[in-house]
Amino acid sequence: MAKSQTVKAREGEILDQNFITPGRFRELDGFRGLAAITVVIYHLGVPATQNYPRTAPSPYDIPLGELGVQLFFIISGFVILLSAIKSGSALKFAVSRFSRIYPTYWFALAVSALVYFIYGNPGRHITIPQTLINTTMLQRFLRVDNVDQVYWTLAVELQFYVMVALYLIIRKGKIYRGELTTILLTWSV
User: Fold this and answer.
1) Number of structural domains found in the chain
2) Shortest CA distance to 177 belongs to which of 187, 188, 185, 165?
3) Dist. CA 20–CA 39, nearest whole Å
4) Angle CA(103)–CA(133)–CA(114) in degrees, nearest 5?
5) pLDDT in the model for residue 9
6) Given this model, what pLDDT does residue 125 score?
7) Where are the alpha helices (DSSP H) in the chain?
8) pLDDT of the residue at 5
9) Which region holds residue 122: left if phi is over 0, alpha if psi is between -120 and 50, else beta?
10) Structural domain of 77
11) pTM of this prediction?
Protein backbone atom coordinates (compact mmCIF):
# COMPACT_ATOMS: atom_id res chain seq x y z
CA MET A 1 0.00 0.00 0.00
CA ALA A 2 1.39 3.41 -0.94
CA LYS A 3 2.24 5.87 1.82
CA SER A 4 -0.64 8.26 0.99
CA GLN A 5 -3.12 5.37 1.04
CA THR A 6 -1.79 4.25 4.45
CA VAL A 7 -2.21 7.78 5.84
CA LYS A 8 -5.77 7.98 4.45
CA ALA A 9 -6.60 4.58 5.95
CA ARG A 10 -5.32 5.68 9.37
CA GLU A 11 -7.24 8.98 9.21
CA GLY A 12 -10.48 7.08 8.54
CA GLU A 13 -9.63 4.42 11.11
CA ILE A 14 -12.30 3.91 13.72
CA LEU A 15 -10.98 3.53 17.24
CA ASP A 16 -12.79 0.58 18.82
CA GLN A 17 -12.26 -2.22 21.36
CA ASN A 18 -9.29 -3.49 19.35
CA PHE A 19 -7.51 -0.18 19.98
CA ILE A 20 -7.67 -0.64 23.76
CA THR A 21 -5.28 -2.85 25.67
CA PRO A 22 -7.20 -4.89 28.26
CA GLY A 23 -6.50 -4.31 31.96
CA ARG A 24 -5.40 -1.28 33.93
CA PHE A 25 -2.55 1.03 33.12
CA ARG A 26 -0.39 0.85 36.23
CA GLU A 27 1.63 3.80 34.98
CA LEU A 28 -1.51 5.96 34.97
CA ASP A 29 -2.27 4.90 38.53
CA GLY A 30 1.26 5.96 39.49
CA PHE A 31 0.81 9.35 37.82
CA ARG A 32 -2.58 9.75 39.52
CA GLY A 33 -0.91 9.05 42.87
CA LEU A 34 1.82 11.60 42.14
CA ALA A 35 -0.78 14.17 41.09
CA ALA A 36 -2.84 13.52 44.25
CA ILE A 37 0.18 13.91 46.53
CA THR A 38 1.23 17.20 44.92
CA VAL A 39 -2.30 18.60 45.18
CA VAL A 40 -2.62 17.58 48.85
CA ILE A 41 0.77 19.09 49.71
CA TYR A 42 -0.16 22.25 47.82
CA HIS A 43 -3.48 22.57 49.68
CA LEU A 44 -1.81 22.10 53.05
CA GLY A 45 0.28 25.16 52.28
CA VAL A 46 -0.94 28.70 51.66
CA PRO A 47 -4.43 27.79 50.31
CA ALA A 48 -5.31 26.17 53.63
CA THR A 49 -4.87 29.48 55.46
CA GLN A 50 -6.84 31.28 52.74
CA ASN A 51 -9.82 28.94 53.13
CA TYR A 52 -9.49 28.48 56.89
CA PRO A 53 -8.31 31.78 58.38
CA ARG A 54 -8.36 30.43 61.95
CA THR A 55 -5.55 27.98 61.19
CA ALA A 56 -1.93 28.86 61.86
CA PRO A 57 0.00 30.15 58.83
CA SER A 58 1.62 27.40 56.82
CA PRO A 59 5.40 27.05 57.18
CA TYR A 60 5.72 26.38 53.45
CA ASP A 61 4.31 27.32 50.06
CA ILE A 62 4.53 24.92 47.12
CA PRO A 63 2.95 26.75 44.18
CA LEU A 64 3.96 24.05 41.68
CA GLY A 65 1.63 21.68 43.53
CA GLU A 66 -1.12 23.18 41.37
CA LEU A 67 0.40 21.32 38.44
CA GLY A 68 -1.00 18.12 39.96
CA VAL A 69 -4.46 19.31 38.87
CA GLN A 70 -3.21 19.77 35.31
CA LEU A 71 -1.76 16.25 35.39
CA PHE A 72 -5.17 14.95 36.55
CA PHE A 73 -6.81 16.72 33.60
CA ILE A 74 -4.38 15.12 31.14
CA ILE A 75 -4.91 11.66 32.62
CA SER A 76 -8.69 12.20 32.75
CA GLY A 77 -8.75 13.22 29.09
CA PHE A 78 -7.02 10.01 28.11
CA VAL A 79 -9.17 7.80 30.34
CA ILE A 80 -12.41 9.53 29.27
CA LEU A 81 -11.58 8.92 25.61
CA LEU A 82 -10.89 5.25 26.36
CA SER A 83 -14.28 5.10 28.10
CA ALA A 84 -15.93 6.70 25.08
CA ILE A 85 -14.29 4.19 22.75
CA LYS A 86 -15.47 1.30 24.94
CA SER A 87 -19.03 2.62 25.23
CA GLY A 88 -19.81 2.84 21.52
CA SER A 89 -22.70 5.28 22.07
CA ALA A 90 -23.34 8.65 23.68
CA LEU A 91 -26.03 7.20 25.95
CA LYS A 92 -23.83 4.38 27.28
CA PHE A 93 -20.98 6.88 27.73
CA ALA A 94 -23.23 9.31 29.67
CA VAL A 95 -24.60 6.55 31.89
CA SER A 96 -21.11 5.20 32.67
CA ARG A 97 -19.75 8.67 33.49
CA PHE A 98 -22.81 9.66 35.55
CA SER A 99 -22.78 6.45 37.60
CA ARG A 100 -19.04 6.76 38.21
CA ILE A 101 -18.85 10.44 39.15
CA TYR A 102 -22.12 11.63 40.69
CA PRO A 103 -22.57 9.22 43.65
CA THR A 104 -19.07 9.96 44.97
CA TYR A 105 -19.56 13.67 44.32
CA TRP A 106 -22.89 13.70 46.18
CA PHE A 107 -21.31 11.96 49.16
CA ALA A 108 -18.40 14.44 49.26
CA LEU A 109 -20.81 17.37 48.82
CA ALA A 110 -23.00 16.12 51.69
CA VAL A 111 -19.99 15.78 54.00
CA SER A 112 -18.67 19.24 53.04
CA ALA A 113 -22.05 20.91 53.50
CA LEU A 114 -22.63 19.14 56.81
CA VAL A 115 -19.27 20.29 58.14
CA TYR A 116 -19.98 23.88 57.04
CA PHE A 117 -23.50 23.84 58.51
CA ILE A 118 -22.37 22.38 61.85
CA TYR A 119 -19.01 24.10 62.37
CA GLY A 120 -19.11 27.05 59.99
CA ASN A 121 -16.10 28.84 58.60
CA PRO A 122 -15.39 32.54 59.13
CA GLY A 123 -15.72 34.48 55.91
CA ARG A 124 -17.60 31.68 54.16
CA HIS A 125 -21.35 31.13 54.36
CA ILE A 126 -23.04 28.14 52.73
CA THR A 127 -26.80 28.08 52.10
CA ILE A 128 -29.23 25.22 51.48
CA PRO A 129 -30.26 26.52 48.00
CA GLN A 130 -26.58 26.81 47.10
CA THR A 131 -26.01 23.23 48.24
CA LEU A 132 -29.01 21.98 46.25
CA ILE A 133 -27.74 23.70 43.11
CA ASN A 134 -24.33 22.16 43.75
CA THR A 135 -25.91 18.66 43.58
CA THR A 136 -26.35 19.19 39.82
CA MET A 137 -22.62 19.91 39.36
CA LEU A 138 -23.74 22.83 37.18
CA GLN A 139 -23.13 25.54 39.77
CA ARG A 140 -20.26 27.13 37.86
CA PHE A 141 -22.48 27.59 34.80
CA LEU A 142 -25.30 28.97 36.95
CA ARG A 143 -22.86 31.38 38.66
CA VAL A 144 -23.41 29.82 42.08
CA ASP A 145 -20.42 29.42 44.39
CA ASN A 146 -19.10 25.91 45.06
CA VAL A 147 -19.87 24.50 48.51
CA ASP A 148 -16.26 23.34 48.59
CA GLN A 149 -13.87 25.39 46.47
CA VAL A 150 -12.07 22.36 45.05
CA TYR A 151 -15.19 21.35 43.10
CA TRP A 152 -14.27 23.83 40.36
CA THR A 153 -12.31 21.03 38.67
CA LEU A 154 -15.47 18.99 38.18
CA ALA A 155 -17.00 21.70 35.98
CA VAL A 156 -13.97 21.46 33.69
CA GLU A 157 -14.30 17.67 33.54
CA LEU A 158 -18.05 17.95 32.93
CA GLN A 159 -17.38 20.18 29.90
CA PHE A 160 -15.08 17.52 28.49
CA TYR A 161 -17.77 14.84 29.02
CA VAL A 162 -20.28 16.97 27.13
CA MET A 163 -17.87 17.55 24.23
CA VAL A 164 -17.09 13.82 23.96
CA ALA A 165 -20.81 12.91 24.18
CA LEU A 166 -21.64 15.44 21.44
CA TYR A 167 -18.90 13.97 19.26
CA LEU A 168 -20.34 10.47 19.87
CA ILE A 169 -23.82 11.72 18.93
CA ILE A 170 -22.59 13.40 15.73
CA ARG A 171 -20.44 10.42 14.69
CA LYS A 172 -23.03 7.81 15.74
CA GLY A 173 -20.89 6.29 18.51
CA LYS A 174 -17.71 6.04 16.48
CA ILE A 175 -14.43 7.84 17.14
CA TYR A 176 -12.21 8.44 14.13
CA ARG A 177 -8.45 8.62 14.65
CA GLY A 178 -7.86 11.40 12.11
CA GLU A 179 -10.64 13.60 13.44
CA LEU A 180 -9.56 13.04 17.03
CA THR A 181 -5.96 13.92 16.17
CA THR A 182 -7.07 17.09 14.36
CA ILE A 183 -9.34 18.16 17.25
CA LEU A 184 -6.63 17.58 19.87
CA LEU A 185 -3.92 19.38 17.88
CA THR A 186 -6.23 22.32 17.16
CA TRP A 187 -7.25 22.56 20.81
CA SER A 188 -3.60 22.44 21.92
CA VAL A 189 -2.62 25.26 19.57
Assistant:
1) 1
2) 185
3) 29
4) 65
5) 45
6) 85
7) 3-11, 26-44, 46-51, 67-87, 90-119, 128-134, 152-170, 177-188
8) 45
9) beta
10) 24-188
11) 0.72
